[in-house]
Amino acid sequence: MNIYDVSKKAGVSIATVSRVLNGNPNVSEKTRARVLEVMEELGYTPNVFARGLGLGSIKTIGIMCSDSSDPYLAHAIYYLERDLRTNGYDSILCCTGNSLETKRQYFELLRSKKVDAIIIAGSKFIEMKIKDNAYIIDAAKELPIILVNGYLEGENIYCTLCDDRTATHYATSQLIASGCRKILYLFSSYSYSGTNKMKGYRDALCGRGLSVQDEYIHQCEKDVLAARDLLLRLHKEGLPFDAVLTSDDALAVGAVKYAHMTGRSIPDDLSIIGYNNSAYSICTDPELTSIDSKAEALCTTAINTLMGVFNGGNVPSRTTIAADLIKRATTKF
């Protein structure tokens, strides 16, 4: 069955059926009821959707992520959809890329679908300029906004975060305690999470009486070969380093490849720590020491928070979860 069948049986135009589907108020209640009744009879679209238009809920949650091919975000999407299904909700996924304008367009698309809430996975959606986040804050006046590992303050906005700053502080401190003094830090973005990771690295150096040097901090595309080539260039330029801490496992894999190409022994000559404890961490030789950012716990907590909001419960606007450092063979501790 399709929209034409509904239009014919209900005795209304296709435009009218479309207005009913989109929740347009310019339809009389009598006509709306008739169209919904016909949709129910014909089995056009899931019945829950048809009933939801009348009840103000379609039992569907919008999920936004910047890149579903990213291992961390791919796992986050899996956990989010799994837990939504467990609670009787469907989902609509939008992969936006990094353009602010595209993010806004997809956000408005989800709102036009009358979703019951929007989940934003990853911290790249929160912009440095406050005005660039206004579209999210404004939307929160109408529906709950859930941020997974991102932070934005506002009414009806709920954030579940990994304590990235403490995690990288601990990892850096462990490297220092194991004898490392020239620790490179590779990162991929200045997102909320990325900024906190860098702060942890800086804090640990300062706390141990070591200077923070710009030549030891490098932004790099989240790509194995890009990280490898960056380290090869730094090596060729004569920059001495005895450890590499990264904001993502893909960069750490690049460090392992660099070590193999230059004959540096891991971890005796070079210690390496990744981030996210992804599948990458057990695919290298040797296996990576990595920070487990608890993607599953973050997502489960986010969905529990959302269900609490729907049920009228008193839920926190911000929940922070501690990371773990998973020690494997790329470090001496």
Q: How would you spell out the order of helices and strands? A: HHHHEHEHEHEEHEHEHEHEEHEE
Strand order of the largest sheet: 2-1-3-4-5-11
Task: Report the average pLDDT across residues.
Answer: 93
| Number of continuous helical runs | 12
What ranges have pLDDT less than 50 throughout 5 or more consecutive residues? 46-51
Largest sheet: 6 strands, parallel
Strand content: 15-25%
Please tally the β strands and state the result.
12
Helix content range: 40-55%
Our measurement of the CA-to-CA distance between the termini, rounded to an integer number of angstroms, reads 64 Å
- What is the radius of gyration computed over CA atoms, rounded to a whole number of angstroms? 24 Å
What gross morphology would you assign?
Answer: elongated
Give the structural class. Answer: alpha/beta
